[in-house]
Specification:
heterodimer; A: 346 residues; MetI-like fold; 0% strand; B: 308 residues; mainly alpha; 16 helices; flat; disordered C terminus; membrane (chain B)
């Protein structure tokens, strides 16, 4: 395709035939790595890439130590692990008795465990319905704002809570919705009393979802905004020429453009489903009571770290991990079936 | 162009394309109203927290809770908190862990991202798969806890840094950005005899300032906000970082830490004012830092999201 004169600042039309022999000359001298990797013996490649390998190692070693090695530690789920039979927690594994699937059968018969599973799933479903669409709607809203300054300020404000810790978010919520909080005070001044959303166990899941929306919905718009910016404007123009109004353009142009991103984020969210709300639940379990505030992660924490029943907690954690991997793979498969990319492709 | 006209120009709406119908007054009002509501939803709670932390005790007592309208300003709460004692120490701990941790994480991540950025290098695929696979599974809390314990990291600050030092997502974002740098630049430096480290330091990193800023912020916020590892690995109260002290003060309703207790009990300070002052202290660094990095967020998030 010939370049227009305007595309070069000096207005000179570049002579394409000249550039091509030049490229042809340089190409054999600077071959792409893909071509060479098959021909060059590995010793030479090792010498060429040794710095790259060396600088990659620290991160890889840290991941091996803190992500892969603990995987092996999951064997304690098949033991009656006692950290005190040996001076070191790891060597204690070799001295603890093996009990097979006993921990898992304990788990299946524990109503507390099933309560935690139920709470986890309910909270996940609730967040999927009440949290997930919010960033999409906010992104559409921000995207329709044309003034750049207004846009930037609104974005800056909405991103802010994402950077607050859960401790801060819950502190702020407590001061506003809690029993001694500002709403309760105001109501009390007007003759109402007993308002306390923070310790209401029936309302707790909505509260947790509300906190999540306040903290992360604003941040969530960033990915959608990027996807919206990538929609070619001629599509909108063509749709408008064909008589599509504002809403029909949103439905037929904007939303289809967002589809891959939505699919990707859904897959990620499903993969994370079983870890939902850990910090929030752990921080608020004293206020609401463990019945309403036990999710799988807090169950593992309380059984293992609090009660010292490591094998049992590890079994619960292992069940959670295996289901989690199945969920990611399943969700990804589902995305492929819908014709979307998902997280990875085979 | 003077700064003033520049400002005016940026406030004016850019022209709409001809095919777009002009906005209706009602739609415009609803839109800006809702946007304003969202922003207030973020700002008002912060305002209340800040005002309460600055209010003198009589004002807080008279209102009987959080203060919305400021009547008088005092810094006694902050003076008390920062004048030594547990909160001052916790701030030092948090600042230290955040600085050291961010520096360590950034060094490891930038090196790994560059090491993984050239397709076809020896072991590229193997290392990449090893790193990325960790995104799909978690090792589990109990085995990690046992590992940290038997490595002898409990009751050291290393337990707050090492287990969470590497974020694979951050490495992938950096890597995607490094891979986007035009190879002509690095190749010509290579022909001039520059080694990989030199290319990273003098060409790649200066070109990636935006994404480096974003990822540093992500790491720093992660370290600053973390409390869980400290709660299970540290048993010494005096070692706790700021978030954990805030938990004790606000959520567990343990009375103010030693030293503060005296001032609260003798009625010089309002416990609520002290709590809110700690909250503000925990909030300030992130609230100040993140807007500066904001204009780069999209770049940082996008490169990661697209190339993954």
């Amino acid at each position: 395709m010939p370049l227009t004169a305007g595309s070069r600042p000096d207005g000179v039309r570049p002579a394409t035939p000249v550039e091509e022999p030049e490229a042809a000359l340089t190409r054999p001298a600077l071959p792409t790595k893909k071509q060479t990797s098959g021909k060059i013996p590995w010793r030479v490649r090792l010498r060429r890439d040794r710095v790259l390998i060396l600088i990659t190692l620290p991160a890889v070693l840290l991941l091996l130590l803190f992500n892969y090695v603990p995987l092996l530690g999951n064997v304690v789920a098949f033991q009656d692990y006692d950290p005190y039979v040996s001076s070191n927690g790891i060597t204690a594994i070799f001295h603890s008795p093996w009990v097979g699937m006993e921990q898992f059968s304990r788990l299946v018969n524990d109503p507390l465990f099933w309560g935690a599973v139920k709470n986890t799933l309910v909270l996940f479903a609730l967040q999927l319905v009440l949290f997930f669409p919010v960033p999409i709607a906010l992104a559409l809203l921000i995207n329709s704002v044309v003034r750049p300054r207004v846009r930037a300020v609104a974005q800056a404000i909405m991103y802010l809570p994402h950077f607050f810790s859960w401790v801060l978010v819950i502190t702020v919520f407590q001061q506003i919705f809690g029993g001694a909080g500002i709403i309760a005070q105001t109501l009390q001044d007007h003759g109402w009393s007993g308002f306390d959303l923070m310790t209401n166990s029936g309302f707790f899941k909505f509260l947790v979802t509300g906190q999540a929306v306040w903290k992360d919905a604003g941040w969530g718009i960033i990915v959608f905004l990027a996807a919206l910016a990538a929609v070619p404007t001629d599509l909108y123009e063509a749709a408008a020429m064909d008589g599509a109004g504002r809403w029909r353009r949103t439905w037929h142009v904007t939303l289809p453009a967002l589809r891959p991103v939505i699919a990707l984020l859904l897959v990620l969210r499903v993969g994370d489903a079983l870890s939902v709300g850990f910090e929030q639940f752990l921080l608020q379990r004293d206020a609401v009571g463990t019945g309403a505030s036990e999710v799988l992660d807090t169950y593992v924490w309380s059984m293992g770290i609090q009660n010292g029943d490591f094998s049992y907690a590890a079994a619960a954690g292992l069940v959670k991990g295996v289901i989690g991997i199945c969920l990611v793979l399943g969700a990804n498969k589902f995305a492929h079936l819908l014709g979307e990319q998902g997280v990875y492709q085979k | 162009m003077s700064l003033n006209t520049q400002l005016i120009r940026s406030l004016q709406a850019p022209p709409r394309p001809v095919w777009e119908e002009p906005p209706s007054r009602a739609g415009l009002t609803a839109k800006s109203g809702f946007l304003l509501l969202c922003c207030l939803g973020v700002l008002v709670p912060l305002w209340i927290v800040i005002v309460t932390s600055l209010s003198p005790k009589p004002v807080i007592d008279r209102v009987g809770g959080l203060v919305v309208v400021p009547r008088g300003i005092t810094f006694v709460n902050y003076k008390e908190l920062l004048g030594g004692g547990q909160v001052s120490r916790a701030i030092m701990v948090s600042v230290g862990v955040t600085l050291v941790g961010t520096l360590f994480s950034m060094t490891v991540s930038v090196l790994a991202a560059y090491g993984l950025s050239r397709r076809g290098s020896l072991g590229h695929r193997f290392f990449l798969v090893t790193v990325m696979a960790t995104m799909f599974f978690g090792a589990g809390l109990i085995p990690t806890y046992l590992l940290v314990q038997s490595l002898g990291l409990t009751d050291t600050y290393l337990s707050l840094i090492l287990p969470s030092a590497v974020s694979v997502f951050n490495i992938l974002v950096l890597r995607a950005f490094f891979m986007g740098i035009s190879p002509e630049l690095t190749e010509s430096a290579r022909l001039d005899g520059a080694g990989d480290l030199r290319i990273l330091l003098t060409i790649v990193m200066p070109l990636s300032r935006a994404v480096l800023a974003v990822i540093s912020l992500f790491y720093a916020v992660g370290y600053w906000s973390a409390w869980f590892n400290a709660s299970i690995y540290l048993s010494d109260q005096r070692m706790l970082p700021l978030q954990n002290v805030l938990i004790q003060l606000v959520m567990r309703h343990t009375q103010a830490p030693t030293g503060l207790q005296e001032a609260v009990r003798t009625g010089q300070l309002s416990p609520l004012g002290v709590q809110m002052a700690v909250t503000v202290l925990a909030l300030i660094p992130v609230a100040v830092a993140s807007p500066f990095v904001q204009r780069h967020f999209k770049k940082g998030m996008l490169t990661g999201a697209v190339k993954g």
